[in-house]
Amino acid sequence: MALKIRLRQQGRTNRSFYRLVVTDSRSPRDGKYVEALGWYNPIEAEDDKKLSIKTDRIQHWLGLGAQLTDNAATLIKRSAPEIIRTQTEKKVAQRAKMAAKRKEKKAKA
Fold first, then answer.
1. What are residue 9's DSSP bridge partners?
2. What is the pTM of this model?
3. d(CA 28, CA 10)
4. CA gap 83, 21 in Å, rounded
5. Rounded Cα–Cα distance for residues 105 and 109 (Å)
6. Which residues contact 89 (CB under 8 A, 6 or more apart)?
7. What are the b/e assignments for 34-43, b being 16+ CB within 10 Å?
8. Closest by alpha carbon to 67, among 87, 38, 81, 40?
9. In terms of DSSP bridges, do strands 67-68 and 15-24 run parallel, antiparallel, or are they unpaired?
10. Which of 48, 80, 88, 96 is most buried, taking the most CB atoms under 10 A from its CB?
């Protein structure tokens, strides 16, 4: 089961708000989800009432292999940039490790 952290649309016509959820990538946008991680209300004027996320739970799900969608990553970057920074550092470290492995393999041949 491929997990995604993405936005789930709620609300009514022209007054929608969103929940940040962990869900199976095959489920529909507004379908069932595993866990709600926060919410985003684009209509709200005050910044503190516009976005709320649970950073510890997001880190937990990312550690288990969940992937962020682009929109979810943008919202998380706005309120908790350290999560995105950690994800980027992991990718860079993995690429460096693979490059070193390829270089070592090439040197042996």
1. 18
2. 0.80
3. 13
4. 16
5. 7
6. none
7. beebbbbbee
8. 87
9. unpaired
10. 80
pLDDT tens digits, one per residue of 20-57: 999 998 988 888 899 999 999 999 888 778 999 999 99
* 56, two tokens: 């510890």
The CA distance from 20 to 61, in Å, is: 12
- Is the Cβ–Cβ distance between 24 and 17 less than 8 Å? no
The total number of residues written for the chain in this structure: 109
| Long-range pairs of 22-29 with CB within 8 A, sequence gap ≥ 24 | 22/61, 22/66, 25/67, 26/2
